[in-house]
Structure formats: C-alpha cells, structure tokens
User: What shape does this take?
Amino acid sequence: MGWSRYVVAVGATLFTLSGAAQAATVELPMTREGADAQEVLQLALIDATPGDTLVMPAGRFALTDGLSLDIDGVTLRGQGPDKTILSFRGQAAGGEGLLVTSDKIVLEGFAVEDVKGDAIKANGSDEITFRNIRVEWTDGPAATNGAYGLYPVSSTHVLIENCVAIGASDAGIYVGQSQHIIVRNSRAEMNVAGIEIENSYYADVYDNVATHNTGGILVFDLPGLPQQGGHSVRVFNNQAINNDTPNFAPEGNIVADVPMGTGVMIMANRDVEIFGNEIDGNATTGILVVAYPYDTDDAAYQPFPAGISIHDNKIGRNGFAPDNEIGELIAEVAGTPIPDIVWDGRLPWWETFFGPAQGDGIYVGANSATDGEAVGFINLDVTFWYAARWLHSVDREPPAHAGEPAKLATVSVSQEAR
Amino acid sequence: MSARLFSGIPCLSGGMPSLSGRMKSMVLAILALLWAGQAEAVNLEVAMAEKPAALLSDYGLFDDLGAQVPADGVVPYDLITPLFTDYATKRRFVFLPEGTVADYQGAGLPAFPLGSILVKTFAYPRVDGNEGLRLVETRLLIHQQSGWVAYPYVWNEDQTDAVLKRAGARVSVTATRDNGRLEDIRYVVPNVNQCKGCHVSDDRLTPIGPKVRNLNHDFPYETGAENQLAHWARLGLLDGLPAAPDRLPRMVDWQEAASSVEARARAYLDVNCAHCHVASGPGKTSGLFLTWEETDRTRLGVEKRPIAAGRGSGGLAYDIQPGEPEASILLFRMESVDPGIMMPETGRTLVHEEGVRLIRTWIAGLEE
Assistant: This one.
C-alpha cells in the first residue's frame, strides 16, 4: 500500500469514526389533516443536521403551535409561495409562526398565513436568507393582525429577496438591530409600514415595490436598545407608490404615528441615501425626514437625522391629503398641497445656529418630477414653530449644509459570496 | 474515586477540541465500567449519551418513579420564588456524579459539574377522588460535554413511566388554581427548541432555577428541615460558600406578606420574565430588562415605549405607567392568553391571577 493510499484509508477511517451525519435532502411526509403536519415539521426541524434541506410538499397545512428552528445550516423549502402554505389561523400557542435562532439558514418557496403574532422571526441569526416567501394576513388590514411579516432581528448578513408581505399591523418586512442587510425584488402591500429598517447598519434596499401601505419604506432609529445609532442605509430604485391604507397599528407602537400616504420616511438615522426611487401617489408626502419626536433619558441616543442624501428620484403627485397630527402640523406650517420632500428642520441646538458639521447635513440634490410639477421641498423649522413662533420661518430651498454626505458602499452579504 | 474525576479526563473537561461521537461513546463506556463498582442507581452513561433515552426510567433517577421517590444521590429541592406554569405543582431534584461538586460563584447559578442532572416534574392534584398527584411531564437538564441539553418526557396514562417527546405535546388536564377553582386546560409540554427559548443565555443552554439566592431557605427533608445551601454543602454538592447561608443573598418569596410589594414584585418578574428579558437573553431586543439586579427605571419599563410589541401594546404607550396599572403594557400582556399578546410567550395557558394582582399593586404604588 502506497503512502497516499494509506492516508486516504486513515482519512476514511477517521471520517467513519467521527460519525459525521451526512447532509441530506429530506422529503417531509406532511399530510393536510390533523396535527400530523405540526409534529412532522417540528420534529424535522429539531432532528435536522447541518447541511440538510428539508422539503415540504405542496398543500395547505393547518398548524396549531409556533414552529422553531435552532440547527445551523438548514434549508427549509416549499414548492412555492402559492403551493406550500402554512396556515396558523388556528394557532393556540407561540409568539411566532416560525422562529429561527440558528445560523446559515435558507427559507424559500412557501407561505406563512394568519399568524397570531409575527409570521417569521429570526433572532440572533448569522446568514439568514428569505427567498420567494409570502407572509400574509388574509383578511386584509386589521389591528388584530400580527405585527411583523418577515422579522430578522439582532441578526447579521440578512438577505430578503423575491418575497411578499401583506397585511402586517406593524411592518411587512422589518429588519431590526441587524447588520449587513439586503432587501430586494420584494413586494410589501397593505401593511402599516411596507419595509422598515430599524436600528440597523449597512443595508441596501432596492428594486422593491411598497404600495397600499400606510407608509412605504421606513428607516428608523429608536432609543433604549442594545443596538442603536442606525447608519449606512441605501434605499434605491424602489417604487413607493399609492400608499393609501389608513394606519391600523395598535397605539403605542412607533409606526402608529406614521401618517397615511408617506412614501419614504427617515427618522434619526445617520448616513442614508435615497435615490432612483419612484415616489408617487402618497397623500401626506413623498419623503419625510424627521428627528425622534419623544423625550428620552437615553444619553447615548442621537435623535437627529444626519448625513441624509436625497437625489435622482422620480417624484410624482404627493402631499394632496395630509393625514393625522403629523400631517396636520405639516399642512399648518407648509400649506396644502404639501411639498414632496419634507424635513422637520430639527437639529442639535448648537447646529441650529452654526449648522451641521461637514457631511452631517441634509442634502437634497436634483430629483425629477413625473407629474409636471416641480419637486417641492420644505424645511418646517419645527423647533422654532413650538419654541419661539416669532423666530419661526419655513425654507422652501434645500439647505446648503457644509460638505457632502458620506459615499456609501454597496452592501454585500456573506451567503452570496460563497 | 477522585473528587475531580472529570477534570482528569481531557475529553470531558470541556477545554479540549470536541471528539467524535464514537470516541465519546468509548470514553463513556470506560467511565461506565469505572462506575460499575459503585452503588449508583443513576445511569450516567444514558445521561451522557448523545441521543436522549426513550423513557424516563432509563436514567434510573428514581427508586419509585410514579411516587417520585428519588434514587440514592438524587436530592430534592425547591425555590423560594418559582416560575408560574399553569398552577402546576413541581417536584425538583438535583443529581451530581459521585465525587463531583458544584462551585459557588455568587448569588446566581453555581457552576454545576459535567454529568449534573436537574429534574423537574410537573403535576396536578388528582381530581378523580384519589389522593396524590397526576404527573404530567418531567423535564431533564443534563450537563453534557457539549453543554447543557434539555429533554421533555410526558407521563403515560398509567403513571408508570414518561416518554420522550422532543416535539412537545399538548395534554388535557384539570388544573387546580391556588384558590381551589378547577380549570380544564390543554397543558403545553414544550418542544426542545422551546426549552431553549427560555434556557438560552448568550447562545448557550443554561439552567435557570437553582440560583443560590433562590435556594437559600429551608427545605423539609426526610431528616428534618434544613437550609438547602447548608444541606448541599454538607452533602458535598456545593463548594465554596463564603459565609453561612443567613449571610448570603436571599431572594424574596413573592407571596410573603412580610416583604415589601416592591421586593415581591421584582422577585416575581425576575423569576417569570428575566430569563428572556436579560442582556444575554432573547428578549434583549425589546430593551426591557426585568432582572432582580436591574436598577434603571427605564430599562425596567417605567415610561418606556414598546419596540416591537405589535398587538401586545394593547393600544398603550408605556410598558409601565407609574400609578396606572391598567395603562401599563406589562400588566396587559400578563392578563392575556392570546398567543400574539401574552407574556411569557410559553409555559402557560391560564392567567396567573395572584401574580397579576401583585404586579397591579406594585405598579399602582409606583411614583412618577
């Protein structure tokens, strides 16, 4: 026996000894009746070994409890978002339809319907992919619908593509406290917020359609959380059109404040670039840039947006029927119709007098009008509106803040690199 | 046998690269041979195997399984303030391999050695006219080389043994509330992932209950009442206590009228909520932290806005509105049994009326 053959033999022996489970494609024997699907699916999710692909058959399966996956490297695949349907209408327990807490996960080709809480949540997952997934509350918008459709949180390398989210009482596609995020080629419809990126770093949101939501695409940062200071978010080549569903979020949630007909909204983030989007038919305004509106005792929190760049968007008819207290305030200050791009004008007090530092300003470049009317802008100067009305003045010219916004790099996620 | 048995065996010490399953089995087989000479009823080989046993009886943890009479070396314990689980009566036991000891490391969990088994049986008083308990499930937490593992076993109708149910189960039982009222419920046995849902800390499974401060009171042993920490130390189960138990941290009993409402409420929230709502737990994404040690009022929920509560907000602005329990999300979610609203998310199908009353009283007395 030659040396090399010996090595091979030893290697093979070690491999056998290691008892390493072989990655496999497992066809799940789910049936449509009774509790069978629940047990078959949950047991498969528990018994999976890294590298496995679990394949669900076509059919509508009634589930009674939330499912969960905590094995790394598993693909859960259905026969398509209109063929393999997990229905949670009769759900009796569990805060989510499907909870993922492991890494290197691919979910693709199935639908999750009518969950009592969130449809699919991934908490603390690295390399989580949602592909060709539909999450939906099938009775249409209602405050009794679950909060989030696709809900990765505290996760890294998040890829959401070719997905559909309908009817969430908070956000259809919500990425929270995460890093390295791509959301693309997806559709969010009839949610309170279509797509929301919250307290997150390095996100590219592009080629999506957000329509018939209350607000189309939101980029928010909130205080008091383990990850805050959201930054480096690009929103480009999306359609945020006809977001005309009355807000149906339960009070208390931040999105309950979003006026119906907000195309794109940025709150308290740093370094956000909004470009190449088609923004039309949003009754309150096309693009709204604001500071966090509430008091907070979180000293580390930065409530003001900074380094915001808005350019080369195609902007149609917006601002024709402002909604809720925010809309009314804007209308009171700006008049109706409301300009297409609205900034509340709030800055840290020293910047109110001296202007933002280089690169920390609000930069509004050229945007093209698709409705024949020039793209309007307004700085509401909300600070003085409330604090000293005699000093208040609106400004309809984009601010000439010093410097230029940071050039944001294209986001990549590691599951695409492999 | 050496008092530091496992530390002398590299593959069990945890510090070495993990070995293959087969090699582990070989080592365990040798270990079992070493053990054969001992009068040890508990089957450590079964406990340390990669796959869980099919039956609870396979572990040899009990001399009389149905009567929950523990085997030699399996010690009963209880907690000063326990987790609420649909009014279930709980029987808890701890087993440490002979010659091993748990090390005191402050008021929290002691460092349990490899091979430790924590046993918790959930039961209800029988309502068929007979004395005794109807056993529903027994959960095992076992400290293996790879870390802790959690397995749920569901009791059979005859109450002769319990069967592994990794996917969890629903069991129809009649629960007896503390006020004596009976409730027919579909008791939820968690699946192994749901076990992790609570027992996870920084991505690793961990025990929750037997924290030093929550053990530090008397237990009615067969030999008479004795402080549990003193008892464990005397048996050689717990090492390194820096002082007598009466000088060590002690959790408040949530029902003990002599303690302040504040302390009782904080004890209740710690035990029922803080396994998730802790900086190392899955509930950290909410920014709400309900641990016994938390001192920041906002992090505790006082005038804190919800983050991702959805329907769980109940249309309310703050987790806790001081002086206004009915305007507090925390209480709203405790009073719900809707899976999209209720907290905790798992472990109950009933509202804990007595717990709700305590938290309501606490919030009503909080000042802005």
